[in-house]
Structure formats: structure tokens, C-alpha cells
User: Fold these one by one.
Assistant:
Number 1:
Amino acid sequence: MPRLAHDIRYAVRTLGKAPLFTTVAIVSLGLALALNTSMFALADAVQHPPNPYPDAARIIIPWFRGGDPRHPVPNDTRVRVLREGVHSADAIATYTRIAAFVETSTTADDMEPVAVSPEFFRVLGVRPLAGRTIGSADAGASATQSAVISYRLWNRFFNGRPLRDTLTLDVARVRYTVVGVMPRGVHYPIDTDIWLPLSAMPTDASLRRYGPAAILHLRPGVPFATAGAEIDLVAKNLTAEYSPKAPLSVWIWPIGGREGPRLGYFSGFVFSTLMMVLIIACANLATMLVARGLARRRETAIRVALGASRSDVVRSVLVECGLITAGGLALGTLLTFWALYVLPHLTIPWVQRLGDLQPVPSWRVFAFAFGASALTVIVAGSVPALRAAAVDPSEPMKEGAGTTTGRLRDRYNPLIMVEVGLSTTLLMCSALFVLVAVRLAIFEFGYAAKRLVVAELSVAPRQLPSGSSIPRFYYDVAERAGRLHGAEGAATFRWQLSANGLVLAEEGKTGTTWMNVTGYNVVSPDFLRTVGISMIRGRDFVAGDATGASPVAIVDEDAAKRLWPDMPDPVGRMMKLGGPRSSAPWIRVVGMAAAIEYQPRTDPDLPPEPMIYVVMPNDSMTARQLVVRGDGGGARGRAALALALKRDLRNALPSATAIPVHPWLDAYEHRRALEEFLASLFGAFAGFGLALCAVGLYGVLAYTVSRRLREFAVRIALGARRRDVARLVLHDAAVTALAGVGVGAFFALWITRAIADTIPLSYATVVALVAAEAVLFAVATVASLGPVRRAAKADPVEILRAI
């Protein structure tokens, strides 16, 4: 212990004498640890979400299964028998799930609120973040329409406005006042966002989805097995009464007994990238310690000559590395706490639960941080410690101000090669994502894609108004939607698979031709005008086509070239949506439309899909999509149009449980946002790794120049020009970077193959690799400017006088 205390004091003194080295080492290592630890804490919060129920071990959920399906046990009876037979519970609450259309003045959506008994929140043991919960005051005939909402819905519908502003929402056309907001993560049962009083539940029986169901809170000191035995006895009694030949059993589990979603392949890839950053940081620290140790070789040789053992030298180097790692760990911990506060506010749309989570540094996070720190000490401290232990006391005394030996060893420093190689990989990953993000950002739609809103409709004959038919209903819906405020037109369409995956064309000069297609669009007459697709030849669809005797079609330019390659005008030609032997009717082509791409192709090297539009007279298919074109009000105009359309469709189909309405480019915008996020994320990783690589390269070059100052002085004294000396140092820097890139390119190509498989750009990998190498060489050049300047300014008189 005294020796360790002496080594710590000695390390503190030596680090204090080199403040720049100490600061750079601690900051770079602390940033790397913070980056890894904060991302690990976020993933840990998704994988093991904090349990918002403080007494979760005593809250149990009984779930009945089995029994006779012809004579099921009524849910009300199950709840009643549980109340009578389970004496180990001090409170039993019930809930009923309903499906309803929920709307505010600015938002509307199909949701599943839950009607709960007054004991519900007392059983869960949660207190509201704001306001109050549902209690006995909300029960009985005098109950008011009050509602409790989740933290997530509070931000989504009301932007976190205070409850004193009288927040209201309509559930199944009944107005409720928000009286409370639950804390983050409270969504029981399943994924609930709205809780209503059981006595104020909408009276429409068709809205009920499930329930009533029970949730129990055990008395203090009652073991889980005792409650399980009582609930099993309840199941046996129900079996004897309702289904003696089909036993009724029950599952029981605590409310906090389930984990979050498993991490996928992408998460593993992100963590692999983070580990690369940490390895670069370790290699950078090891490089700096090696360069510092080589600069102190004379001091180490004197210590050995004065009687210090090799173990003392190794221990002092490891203690010095440990102090730097401890400083980096402290800095990384502070930055991690800050990052965990900021991350939930940077919610991204494809991680829906991120905004509802509050990542906290759990024991797993601290274990990861300490494990990474221990790995840093082992990896970064072993190389300089072994080098220091191998010092021969006589050699440093003979070297004087430096020699020309070791130049090749400094060029091909394995630690620098590791840093450059991993930086190449990170830069290549970043470049791949940037290429895809740029391709999506510059994609131009050949139609009014950014002004369209689409609704997914599926109606049954029993849902139609009296005396209406499927074709007439969809015609009325489209006509009414086209007159909404902010709308310029509306139409319906559906995707129909082609028989045998073929389209047959006749009347060509070369005879019958055919082409492979996935399917075609069955549209209403106003579809092309609504979507904004221009006509090139022939005519557009007219209203009479929907009531005519036979179907008519419009093909785009690509389909026309493939079906009638020797004819410039396909108007008037006949086609069959199927193979030669199919029973599909022959359809006359009345026009040719412009070829467009509805979405950016996954593989741009493949030819675009030919499009065929068909109007079927008296089309009776029940599932269609309704597309409405806005007047160009931007994102806000689209959102207002979607809200108006959703309300209009709810009036037209009051019995429908859910009608999805979303912007036409919803999937494209989510994909673009994801690619931009990945580009920025991996760009940050690559930038940080590149900065560490530049620091390591600078340290090695600076040390190399300091060892070769005598050589440079001799060269200048013998007539060499200073620019020749500068060129020599630049050459060594380029060789060092080239060696790292050459080794790292193979690893980069291998590890980025998984990304390239999801990014089918024929040029992407080559462009990404070239870009990564160009950036690395540029950074190597910048990092070498300081040592180059020092070498070029070497004064032969001063240096040779110091020998």
C-alpha cells in the first residue's frame, strides 16, 4: 500500500507537469465513455423500462383461459367470484376496454380508452403527475364526465398545457374534462392513454372490446402462492358450475413481470460502432502514453539505473494510466447524466417509446461504465508499460538528442493503424447513410405527392346507409371529401393483383406482346386529376366510364413502350390484364399518362414499375383507399385536411371502429427522417473517432520529429532546403495514414457489407470508401502541420550545440 500511494503521488506530479497532455487524454477518453454509456443507458431503458408502479410485487393480474366456448363464463361473473373468493387481496379493481373515436379541437384518432372502477389507481399505487385520479367522486349517477390521460397523450394532444386551461376531449361523441395526467410509463392495461370512470362510460354496447377484467392488490405479508391457491380454487368452482367437461384455468403474474422489446440487429450494429469509438479512444490513449514514455526514456533509464525494478516501472505507468482513466470516467459520468436528461427531449418518430421513457443510470449502466474503464486501463496501459519495462539503461544515455533509427517502426505504428482503420470504417458507414439521405432528399415527385392525404376504407353492406350501394357510397364519399375546406379534389383507388402476373397486348405490328407486372390500379374517374398525373396522348377518364358497359384503361409511358414497342400511340389498342388463357376481359386503352415514380425505388438500378390505371364499371369491391388533394397549405394544411377528412368519414361510417388517415408521403417522410438521423448519428460517431485519430497521429508525428531533430539539423547544415525536410515529414505522415487505410479498408468493406445490402446503390460502397480515405488523408495532413513546421524550423546551430 505505501508503494501504491507513492506511485499515485508520483503520477500526479508527472501529469501535472504536462497539463496539455493530461487534459487531452482525459477529455477524449471521457467523451468516448460518455457516448458509450449514454447510448447503453438508453438501450437499457428500452430493454428494461423502469417500473412506474412502486408496489408492483403485490399487484397481480389473473387471466382466465380454457372452459367451454359454447357456454363461456361471463366476465361480470368472473369479477364477482374473484371479489368473493380471494381474501388475500385488500383491493380489487376492474376495467373495461372500449374502442372509440377520440378528438379534440386540433386532433382526432381512433383509440382504445379504458373505463375503470374507483379503486383502479389505488390498486396500481400511482399518483398523478398533475391533477387527480378517478375516485369515488366519479362514481354513481351524479358522476361527471372526467378523464385521466397519459403523459404521452398530454404532450401529443395538448402540448403539455396546464389542466387549469380546462382541457377537454370527445370520446364517442361524449365530452370529457381532463382532471389528471399520469407519470411517464403508466399505460396499464397494455398501451392505454385514456382512463374514464366506469359509471361515465359511453353507453353504446358496440364500443366495448373487452371486460370487465380484474386487477388485485395483495395484503401486506401475504405470499404470492397463497393468492394463487385462492384464485385456482375460484377457477375450479367456475369450472364445476359452467364447464365441468372443459376445465377453466387461470394465469397469474405480477404487473411488473414483463420486459421491454428485445434489441434488434440495428441496435447491435450501433453498439458495434460505439465499441469502435471506445477502441479508438483506448488506442489513442495508448499511443499518447507510448509517445510520452518514449520521450521520458532517459528518466526511466535513470530510475532503473538507480535501483528501481521493472515491476516498479510497470506499476507507475499503469497507475498513471489509471489516473487518466479515473478522470475520464468522472467526466464521462457527468456527461452521461447530462445526456440522459437531454435524450428524451430529442424524441424521434420511429422510436415511439423514447419520449415516454426517462433513462436512468441503473446498476447495469454503472457496470458497463466501470467495465469499459477497466478495459481501457488494460488495453491502453499494457503497451506503454511493457515498453517502459523493456528500456535498457545504457541506450537512452547514448542517444543524445536523437538518432535516425526507428523511422520505419514509427511509420507503421500498430496503434495508429488501428485508429486509422477503425476511423475508415466509421467514415465509410457515415458516408453510406449520407448518400441514401441525399438521394431521398433530392428525389423529385412527378405529381402532387406533398399535397395528398389518403384514408384506408373498408365497408360492409350492413354499414351502408339505407338504399345505398358500394359504388354509390364511394362516389358520395369522394364527392363530399372533395368539397372539404382546403381540398381541391378526391378520388378512390385500390391495388389489384394481375392474373398470372402478366399483361397481354394485341394489335401490335409484331403481333401479341406481354409484360410482367405485379398488378394495376383500379381507380375512380377523377384519380389522375386528383393525384396530378398529366396526360400525354388520348383522353382522361370521364364520369361516364364508371357506369359504362365495359372497363377502360390508361397506361403510362413505360407500360406503352413495353406493350407496344413499335407503336408511338397506344390509344385505341386492346389489352388483357392476365395471361393468354385467363378469363379476364379485353380492355380498350383510351389514353397514355406520364410515367411517374410514386416513391423512390429501393433499388434505383432496377427499371421502374409500369403503371396501368383501370376504371371498372359498377366496381363493388368493399376495400378502397380515398385520396384527397389539398390546396397546398404545407404540413399544417395537410394536417388540417386530414383532421377534417377523418371527422367526415366518421360521420359517414359511424359504426366503423378505425379509419386510418395519413399523408400520402407518410412512409417516405418517416424513411427520410430515419436516414437523416442515421447519417447524423454515424456522422457524429465518425467525427469523434476522426478527432481522436488526429490527436493520436499528431502525437506520434510530434514525438518522431522530436527524436529526429538532430537528423534534420544535420541535413540542413549539409545544404538541404527546409521544404525538403518538411516534405520528408509529410511523406512519413502520408505513409502512416496509407498503412492504416490499407489495413482498415478490408475491415471497412467487410463490416459495411451489411449496410450496403440494405442500401442497394451500385456506386455507394466505392464512393463511401473514396470519401472516407480522402477525409482521412486530409485530417492526416492537418495533423502533421505542427510537426512539419517544427521540423522545417530546426536550427542546426542550436541543436548541434545542445549535443
Note: The longest helix spans residues 666-707.
Number 2:
Amino acid sequence: MTEFFDAQEEPTVDLSPGGSSSGASMRSVYHQVDWSATPLGQRDTWPGLLRLVVDLCLDSDFPVQISWGPDLLVLYNEAYIPLLGADKHPWALGRPVSEVGPHPWPASEEHLREVMRTGRAYHSDDQQLIIDRHGYPEEAHFTFSISAIRDANGIIVGLFNAITETTQHILYERRLQVLRRLGAMSITTDESLSSTCRAAVEVIGKNRKSVPFAAVYLRDLPDQAPRRTAGYGFDEKAAAGCELVEPTPSDGPVLEVLEHGGSTVLVSGLRERYPGVFGPGPLGPLTPDQAFVLPVVMLGRREPIGVLIIGVNPYWRPDEAYTAFAAMAARQLGVMITDAVSYQNERRRQQALEELDRARTEFFQNVTHELRAPLTMLLAPLQDILHEPGMVLPAAARDTVETSVRAGDRLQKVVDALLDLSRAESGALIADREEIDLVSVTTDIVEGFRPTVEDRLNLRLDMPAEPLRAYVDRTMWTTIVSNLVNNALKYTPAGEVSVSLNGDDSQVVLAVADTGVGIPLDEQAHIFERFHRVLDDQQPGSGIGLALVADMTAAHGGSVEVASEPGRGSEFVVRLPRYNGSPEPEEGGLSEASATLTLEDEVGIDRPPLLIIEDEPDLRAYLTKMFSKDGYAVEAAADAESALTWLQDNAENPPDMVITDVMLPGQSGLDLLALIRQDEHLARVPVVVLTARAEAESAVEAFAAGADDFVPKPFNSAELLARVRAHYQMNQLRDDAIDRAQTTVGQLRRALQSNRATGMAVGIVMTRYDLDSERAFQVLVRASQQNNRKLCDIAEELIRTGVLPGVASSPVGNV
């Protein structure tokens, strides 16, 4: 039978003898019973203690049972009648337990006699019983306590059984657990809506006491027939003839709910109509007889996308609470489907963007490589003509050739810029640092512009009197300075362009200022974006130069910023770490304490902060000195507790890297790592674990706890420096990628996974081939190019299989 659900009324309890009338009070019943026909005898002969206990029993709203005397004569109150069974009331009053039933509720006769014999109370929580108190077998749960009744001499004369029903609490917790599990499910691993539904039904099926069978139907389009995507609790062979669970229903309640406004339908009579289809649940032999058919609606839509079938526990009836539970399960399934659709759409969009980005990068790389050959063939002959000994060209011809060479050189710079841009987008733009004097290099670059501008503006240099040596990529530094100066000259028709350089122990600062046209305020946030051009800009350009400045500055671990006022000029400021990635001249004066955190006396404001936790004082001091010389601002702690205190005190400025020993006094390094990963402000900070245990299990344990790298003691100092440097650089790249993609959940997840995998792969290549971090990364890039695959895919395959695709056993030669 199919019906729209209405709450059913609870049947009343018949308290009269024989069950012929209702509403009589138990005190009236006690007056009507012929007690002389029972072993208790007339009521006026009862002991005073028994009369007192019976009065307490009758006054209670909770079920109470009294067992009196050696024969355990049964007495009870009105609330106990449904538990006893109406067919035994009032006959059971005053009868021995052995006559009332072979297993009197709620405890066996053995339990009762044990309490009579020993006086020790017997207690049971949430005992499950199948009872008939409303005309059908019903699941119920009770907590009871049987205690001894003693007379004035302390002799046990009876038992007092106080009972509390906990059925609603048990049912509530059971159903709530299903809803909690549904709400906690992740849809990010589901490949389709069908897999989402199967996962949801699997969760529901873990509680068959509440839902003995279930099924989900979906339809892809409004005019298509629904199809069953998941289900359990029924015979698959027999399901073809059952409108509730057949694979593709053509009629019945499923279509009724889908096509008629989405109202919930209650189907009854399953046991008789579909024998053998539904099996018994875990509560007993009864098979389900009713089921809810509920609409599944996506958020923001009105028409249901599917139907959820919830089988009703055969030992319960679909009351208001049961109906609410079923409705909430259907609603939660609708939320999951909504999230799954949104996630899959976003994932497809992200995949399309990644493919577009890959194609664009590949296009740039191919175009730049294709342009190099004809440019060489164009420029080389022209330069040969200009420099051929004895070659005399007419003035007009020489001027034409020189103009062509300058145009070719300009085109060559654009091609180089495109290649650098593609390298930056693919993550292969790596600074090849060397120690150079920035004063002389910068002066030479700027002086090269002077002949072309002296007639229209003042080009001013402000350089230190002494050499300013730093570890930078010479080619990148030349590009940074040239692009900034060229950009300033281009937009300063008259006035002044100034170039200044200064530095301290930790950083170098380049400033290029002009008195030109300035940058509109609404454009200043976009000028470092690739191919961005200011609207109404009449100057020639590709929108690449400033983007390359930003990329190359980032490759050094530095920063670039602009301050501009329209009509009054602009100033670009580049800051690069002076020694990041290369040895720093010997310094002294480190302050060190054995059990508390210490800070280096002289720390540059832009040196990356590094937290070291090591309990051995000498090793702690060595690590502090080693990483300080490598360009880090080092904090050191002797134990996890001190480190946590410092992290909490500096929550606004967390470290860029953490190095921790595993064996520490108090909390271990892995305990500290777990706390770091749970902190939303620290969760992405790279952590390198040091340990004296070098076996594979220790590495697995460290990586499982969230470590980015695992270095056994004794370690090679150069290797440790390289590993930390690689993780620091990858973390900077990762944070930059996350900032650009923070509005896209899929991009965020991809950035986190890809960069950690790349960092781990760099560490593997470094260890296997004895390379530094830059050369190891180049090996990965070359493998990516040779196999025409994404860099992250190459890294993940290396981590998973231990094999670097397409690279020989010794890949160093071509790096």
C-alpha cells in the first residue's frame, strides 16, 4: 500500500482485568484483586514494610517491579504493565516469578535469586528487548537496577526493581550517528554522482538497525527514466519485480515522488506484496514492511534530482522522529550531491585551465626556440658585414645594416624574455648565483643607456663608494636592472631618472625612480602581471618586462614593489637577500642558551627565519652557526615545549622553515610536528626531521606525521643545507602559487600537493645523484620536457615508483 505519510496514533494501554476496559487506576485494581487466592493472602495481613514498598511502587511514574518473599511474588505498578504484557495483567499480581513466566522481565530468575542470596544489587544499562505493548513486536531499551529490600533486622525479604526506559535516547543517538557520518563525508574523491550516492548508502548501511534496506535513484535529465545507483538489504535477483528497488522503475512510488511535487511517500505492506525480496535485519527474524520514499533535491533547485528509499525498522513504527530522520538523511544526500556537482564542475574548469596554461607555456617554448634559428641567420651575416676587414659600405648602406642589427637585437631580447617567461611559468626559472660586485655591474648597465637619453633628461647614478658584493644570478640581475631603467626612460619624456644601490649584511636594495607620467592607481596592482598593459598606453611594449622583473626577483627569494603618483613619477624598489643560497663571510657573536630559545645578535630584517629544535647543546650551536652563515635568521630551542612557547609568542610572524630532532626531552619531535600541522597558521611551514634512527620505518613514521623531509644522523652538512634550501625555495613558490589561486579550491589543493611532491622529488634526486638543489631541480625539469609531462606528474611518479622517467642512471652530464 502506498500512502502520503501521516503520524500514527499510539494505542492506549488497557489496565483492566482481561483487558476489557481502560482508565482504571492501579490502586483500584489492587482493591479488586482477590489477594486471598494468592500466596500473599489478604492485604490487611501484609507486613507493614510490604505495604510501604507497594505504596512507593504505585506512586512512581516509572516502571517498578517488586519480588516479595522466597517465592519472589510479583507486584508492580501501572507503568510496568506494558512491559509485562497486558494479557498477564492483573492475573500476575501476587503470583510467583516461576509462574508468571520462564523468563520474567527484565532479569532472569537466576539474577533475582542471586540478589536475594547475596544482597548485592544488579544493574543493567540500555538493555534491548523486543516487547509487545502496542499490538506489534517493538524494539525497546531499558536501564534497570534490582536492589534488596531488608526488614528491621537486616534480613532480605524482597527485591525492588526500578526501571527507566531509554528507547528514545538509543534511537536518537543511532540515527544521529548516521547523519553525522553523512555530514562528515568528503566528496573530493568521488568521480561521479553515482559514486557519491554509493558512498552515502554505504554510510547509511552501517546502521541497519535504523535502516534495514536502502536504495538511491538518480536521473540525469528531467525527461529520462531514473536509474538505481546504489542500494543494499534486498535480493538483487528478486528486485526486478519490486517497484521500490527495481533497477529502472517505469511506475510506482519512485516516479510518483519525482513527478508529483517531491512529497515524501510511505509505502506499506512490503512483507505481503514482496515476499523474499527484503531480508531480516539485525534485530530479529521480521522482514521490513514499510519504507519511506523521499525526494533528493539539490540546493538552489526545486525539482528533485533523485529519490532516497529508507526501509523502516520492522520492530518500530514511522513516528514523527523516524520521519524527521529519514527527511534529514535525504536532505544531507542532496547537499552531498550539490557539493559533488560543484566540485566536479570546478575540477573540470581547473583541468581546462591547467591544460590551457600548459599549452600556452609549450607554445612560448616552441616559438622562442623556433625564432632563435632564423634570428641567428639574420644577425650573424649582418654583423659579419659590419665587421668584415676591408669592407667599405656607403654611409646609407651602413646605416641601414646597423638599424637592422639593432632591430634584430631588440627582437632577440623579446625572444629571450619569452623563454624566461615560459621557464618561470613551468617552475624552471632558477637563479644560478655567483659572487659579483653589484656596483660595477649595475654601473655598466646604466651607463649603456646614457648616450640615448642625455639630450632629453638627466640619468643619475647613486652608487656606494666601495664594492657591494652579493650572490646573485648575473644574467637575471642584468635583466632586472635593464628592464627597470628602460621602463623608466620610456615613460619619462623629460626630467630625471635616478638609479641607486645600497645594502647591509643581509640584503641589497635597488631603487629606480623617475619623474615621468606615473601609473594610474587602479593599474598599480596589475603591472607585474604577465602581458598586462596600461590602458591608453601609447608606448611600444609586450607587457613582459615588469613580469620578468617580478619572476627573477622571486627566483632570488626577494621582493619588488612600486610607489607611483600619476603625473609625478614612479619608484621601483627591488630587495634581494645578499647571501641566500651561498656561503656568507664568517661572522661571530652568536648568542646561545642551552635550554631556551636564542636569537642571532645581528639579523637582517629580510633574512628568512628558521627554527631549530635540538636538545644537544653542541649540535644546536653548530646548526645555528651553519644556517646563520647560509643566510637564515636562526631561532634555536632545546625542547618542544620551548619551541611551542616561541611559536605561540610569534604567531603573527611564523618561521619559514623548521628543523627538529625526533628524540627530545618531554614531547618528541614528531609530537611537535603533529601540533604544527594542526595549527592553521603553521600547517604549510616546511619541516625537516633529524633522527639518529636511519631505518625505513622511521622515515615512514616521519612522513606519515607530516614531515617534508627526513635526514638521518650523522648527516652531510652540504646535503642538509641543500635540502633545507630546496624546501625553502619550493615553499616560497608554493605560497606564491596559493596567493594567486586562493579563490579556487581546486587550485589550492593542486598547489599544496604538487609543491610538496616536487620538494620530496628534489630531495630524492639530490640524494641519489649527489647533486645540489638547483641541479636536482633541473634534472626534474629535463625529465618533464623529454616526456612532455607536467613537472608535478614526474615528481609524483618518482616518489611512487623510485624511477625517474626518461632519464638515464646518471643524468648529470646534460644538466
Note: The first helix runs from residue 26 to 32.
Number 3:
Amino acid sequence: MLVVDLQDKLMTRMTDRDRVVSNVVGLIRGARLLSVPVWATEQYPQGLGPTVPEVAALIPERPAKTTFHCCAVPQLLEQLYGRHVRHVTLVGIEAHVCVAQTALELLDMGFRVQVAADAVTSRRKLDWEFALRRLEHAGAVVSTTESVLFEWTESADRPEFKAISELVKSLDRRETA
């Protein structure tokens, strides 16, 4: 999973900040339970500041970038290729810029890409909506946080299933609160 530029200075401008951050944190926690590798990037942190504290506490290493897509970050590609990762789940901001460009680059490089629609956002809903349409048309799978967590889990027989199920329930409670 790759958390794209979830930086506090930009997130203050997002109307759905709390929901997106909660879902990203839930996905990070689920990924850790299931041994799914997680990476994060920051777009020009000197100007846009650090990653939101809730995520920064969970992912201390967040390479900086100035390109909009994340594929120009050498250590990220080294990790993806070194671990033989073929499927990348994207979350973060902004859906129509850095998330979209990263997804398109990864697709061009032969990766399977999934975007958790409720864990990405843009300042404007129209940009978010068309980014997801564009990515789906390009071959990315557009999904949700809950779908991603259960896809990673694969089976109710898996020992982590109960913990993942509880995590999903906790996200549901936040969504309805």
C-alpha cells in the first residue's frame, strides 16, 4: 500500500479530512496485521509541511518528492521491485493529481493498481469523481477501505480475520458518528 502525500497543510482544505484520515489509518493498521508492506511519500514538504500526525506516527519514513507521481522516488521502486510487489493499493491526496499520476505510471509499468475511493480525496468533489472515473477507465480497480481489508484477508479462516473484522466495525462506528 502506498500513502500518497497525506500532508496536513493540504488536508485542512479537504471537507472529508477526518473520514479519509480514519480510513487511511485503518488500512495501515490492517496492512500491518496482515504483513502487507506500506510506504508513504510527501510532496515538497518544505512548502506543504509534514504528513498528518496520525499517519506520520505509523510511517516514520516518508521520502520527499517534487514530481507529482511517486514513481520518481527511487527507494519506492526499489522496494516494490525488491519485494516482487505486483499489486499496489493507493490512498492519499489529491485524487486528480498525485494519486492519479502515480496510478497511471504504475499501470504503465505493469503493476495492478487499486484505489480506495473513501481513502483518497481532492479539494473539489468534481476532481475526485473524475479522477476515479479516469483511473477505472485506465485499468485501475476502484474499491473501498472495507473491500481492500477483506481482499487482503482473503478468508474467514485466516487467524487475523477477527482483528480485521473488529477494525472494520470501528471504522463503521466513526463513519456513522
Note: Strands lie at 2-4, 39-43, 64-65, 87-93, 112-121, 141-143.
